[in-house]
From TrEMBL, chain B:
Domain of life: Bacteria
MF term (GO), any: 3-oxoacyl-[acyl-carrier-protein] synthase activity
Ketosynthase family 3 (KS3) domain: residues covered: 1-394
InterPro entries referenced in this protein's UniProt entry, alphabetically: Beta-ketoacyl_synthase, Ketoacyl_synth_AS, Ketoacyl_synth_C, Ketoacyl_synth_N, PKS_Beta-ketoAc_synthase_dom, Thiolase-like
NCBIfam families assigned to the protein according to its UniProt record, in alphabetical order: PRK09185.1
Protein name: 3-oxoacyl-ACP synthase
SUPFAM superfamilies: Thiolase-like (SSF53901)
CDD domains noted in UniProt: KAS_I_II
Cross-referenced Pfam families: ketoacyl-synt (PF00109), Ketoacyl-synt_C (PF02801)
Gene Ontology CC annotation, any one: cytosol
GO biological process: fatty acid biosynthetic process
Organism: Dechloromonas denitrificans
Family per record: Belongs to the thiolase-like superfamily. Beta-ketoacyl-ACP synthases family.
């Protein structure tokens, strides 16, 4: 009904977490993205979720371990209190192994599925375990955008930072399906990135970020193995942005979102 | 927040297709629940099934989206002239300026469940006609809707179990406040499937009778299905009688994956956040549409939270005895029920509930009755401790 001049989607980045095949954490990824270390292909290493109470730790799936690892890394990087942080989880799918097990059993005559498998089947399972682990009662958003999941999560997280004026932890992640679903959705392994976004600059701010719509082509990575990760794992559509952050450079990169809509990211290093 | 206009809205559930059927059922205190004969499901439970969903044909150009969930989505979009309202908004604002924010808990998982019965006996492969992206994936509903209208702007699925399609109102409101879009299609669609029917049964959360929210003898949910949509826009001077989104509130229980916080702490925080967002006090609310699933734990915890904030003054009811629990669609279905209640000065009752739980002292409405209403609050809570409350009002 009424037009309104767009408010810039801007925030400060205070913390980064990353885990991907061959890139076990942000410091190692940073060294690779700066060209200081070669990329070595390896399966993703998921640390044990020691923060969870024993009962939940036993039930923790790969996506739970992944999201706790990257979310806690980003929060620690920023020295933020995870017990108060609002979160935006964004994933192209839920727990693929759990989904396969449910579908396999429901195709048999014995359909008495396990209640734990059922509650772990929700798309927001990792977010639920995050809440139990961190005791944060702040708003927690859980998004799916298929291959566009990183961009969708970034848009909502920036919305919370700008409109609700609250530090918000974006946790974008994906994981693999076993066969036979793997043949239909071939995400190769677990991978994800977490960014702690804040509405005001502090001494810990790493860079200012402003996002705007675009119809340009997405930036690519020169190193073929990294470019392969960018296209294979939806959360890693963020890699061109992470490369700027790793190098401490200012500049503009275009990230893949949802054709024909792309996202320009302007980064100003602190 | 600045109030947003619901310039169109619609709901399709087991009560019927569209607003007239829904309103008539609410007025009459009718339930759409039936004994479960869905697919090959063998469970002693009642369900809220929408008739003839599988007779709905998608256009050839969208055939890749064909599954029960998107068939119900299309059925829902075509009710009450909602699709025409969306097309008018697209013509007004442009196809990149109308966003899509839709909630679902299971999307088209039924399609995968059925495909697993047709695996190649030798290789175990799924059949060639199974398409993961456009049926199974949680985004398939939002992507189908975006393609249905030929949109080119932002789209996202929110999937937080049974709060999904309440939280889309908050996400869309943020983008409208930012001015990154001019209109938003919000809503939710969830359809019956084996995962949820056998899953809730495994947790012993399904009732063998039609569900009885807030009843002393309540013993579980009746799973339902539904499609509900609203078109949200900014407005400077809302016409008298139009329905507005006044506030949104979100919180997390941080307590347990499938049980609510026993004191309803997260629920209370979400309701308080919605009041703060709308700059209202508890005394300003005239009706509460409760989450009211009819499980012993949910209604006890929610009752404590509502009692702590509102006392026993505000008329409240759960409408899940009428619609069943439509899971990821429940937030949007009940948002539309609030809009109907406000437009028609109707306090909805609670079909199925006969003996109120004396341990929960609320002004619970067993039967529908006329009452002047200006503002309504709707609660939606999900697995993983995801809570969302919305406040709607009627423009004076």
């Amino acid at each position: 009904m009424i037009a309104s001049a767009p408010i810039p989607l801007s925030a400060w980045i205070e913390g980064i977490g990353l885990l991907a095949p061959g890139l076990p954490d942000w410091p190692s990824a940073r060294a690779v993205l700066r060209g200081e270390q070669p990329f070595t292909a390896a399966p993703s290493l998921l640390p044990a979720p020691t923060i969870l109470p024993p009962a939940e730790r036993r039930r923790a799936s790969r996506v739970v371990k992944l999201t706790l690892a990257i979310g806690l890394e980003a929060a620690a990087h920023a020295a933020a209190d995870v017990g108060t942080l609002a979160t935006v989880f964004s994933a192209s799918g839920a727990d693929g192994h759990n989904c396969h097990a449910l579908c396999e059993q429901l195709a048999t005559d014995d359909r008495q599925i396990s209640p734990t498998r059922f509650h772990n089947s929700v798309h927001n399972a990792a977010a639920g375990y995050w809440g139990i682990a961190t005791k944060s009662m702040a708003p927690c958003q859980v998004i799916c955008g298929f291959d566009a999941s990183f961009g969708a999560g970034l848009l909502d997280a920036l919305g919370q930072v700008v409109i609700d004026r609250q530090p918000t932890l974006l946790i974008a992640y994906d994981s693999e399906y076993p066969e036979p679903l793997h043949a239909k959705r071939d995400t190769p392994d677990c991978g994800g990135v977490a960014l702690l976004l804040t509405p005001t600059r502090t001494t810990r701010s790493l860079a200012a970020i402003t996002v705007s719509p675009s119809n340009a082509s997405a930036a690519q990575l020169a190193e073929p193995a990294l470019e392969n990760l960018r296209t294979a794992i939806p959360a890693l559509r963020s890699l061109p942005l992470l490369q700027l952050l790793a190098r401490g450079e200012s500049g503009r990169v275009c990230l893949d979102y949802l054709a024909p809509m792309q996202l320009n990211v302007d980064l100003q290093a602190c | 927040m600045t109030p947003l206009l619901l310039s169109g809205y619609t709901a399709t559930t087991c009560l019927g297709r569209g607003l007239d059927a829904t309103l008539a059922a609410l007025r009459d205190g009718r339930s759409g629940l039936q004994p479960c004969h869905f697919e090959t499901v063998d469970l002693a439970t009642w369900i809220g099934e929408v008739p003839a969903v599988d007779a709905e044909k998608l256009p050839k150009s969208l055939a890749r989206y064909d599954c029960r969930n998107n068939r119900l989505a299309q059925l829902g979009l075509q009710a009450d002239g909602f699709a025409e309202r969306v097309r008018a908004a697209v013509a007004r604002y442009g196809k990149a300026r109308v966003g899509v924010f839709l909630g679902t808990s299971t999307a088209g998982i039924l399609q995968t469940e059925l495909a697993y019965r047709r695996r190649d006996p030798a290789s175990g492969a799924l059949p060639d006609d199974f398409i993961y992206r456009t049926t199974h994936n949680s985004f398939s509903l939002a992507e189908f809707t975006r393609d249905y209208f030929g949109l080119e702007g932002p789209a996202m699925a929110v999937s937080t179990a049974c709060s999904s399609s309440a939280k889309v109102f908050a996400a869309a409101a943020r983008q409208l406040a930012l001015g990154s879009i001019d209109a938003a299609i919000v809503g939710g669609v969830d359809t019956l499937c084996l995962t949820t029917l056998y899953g809730f049964a495994s947790l012993q959360l399904t009732s063998s009778q039609p569900c009885r929210p807030y009843d002393e003898n309540r013993d579980g949910i009746s799973v339902g299905e539904g499609a509900a949509f609203a078109l949200l826009e900014r407005v400077d001077q809302a016409a008298s009688g139009s329905i507005l989104l006044l506030g949104t509130g979100e919180s997390s229980d941080a307590y347990h994956m499938s049980s609510p916080h026993p004191e309803g702490l997260g629920a209370r925080m979400a309701m308080q956040a919605a009041l703060n967002s709308a700059s209202l006090n508890a005394a300003d609310i005239d009706y509460i549409n409760l989450h009211g699933t009819a499980t012993p734990a949910n209604d006890a915890a929610e009752g404590k939270a509502v009692g702590a904030l509102f006392g026993d003054r505000v008329p409240a009811s759960s409408t899940k005895g009428a619609t069943g629990h439509t899971l990821g669609a429940a937030g949007a279905v009940e948002a539309v029920i609030c809009a109907l209640a406000l437009s028609h000065d109707l306090l909805p009752g609670s079909p199925g509930t006969t003996t109120l739980d004396p341990a929960i002292p609320l002004a619970y409405q067993l039967s529908s009755r006329p009452a002047p209403l200006r503002r309504a609050l709707s609660n939606s809570f999900g697995f993983g401790g995801s809570n969302c409350s919305l406040i709607f009002g009627v423009a004076p």
